[in-house]
Amino acid sequence: MGFLRRLLGGGRADPAAPDGEPEPDDAALDADERARELELARFDQDRADDLVRRQQRFSSYSWTPPAQGGERRAEDNDGSSGP
Question: Which of 1, 15, 47, 48 is deepest in the core (most CB within 10 A)?
């Protein structure tokens, strides 16, 4: 969210907030964002069971069927004269 605030120019113009707290700097916002993403990744990993983890780990080795209809397409020149 911090990058969106910086990109769109959001936030307060005054560095001191109305309640007297200074606005956090970019480094603190980035650290908070990284910590939140790490927490979400850990939660997602804990939520996934063993079967899902195995499927994700070996998905690059899975078999995929060949494209239907073969390699030729209707636009290909097959040598026959068309209408």
Answer: 48
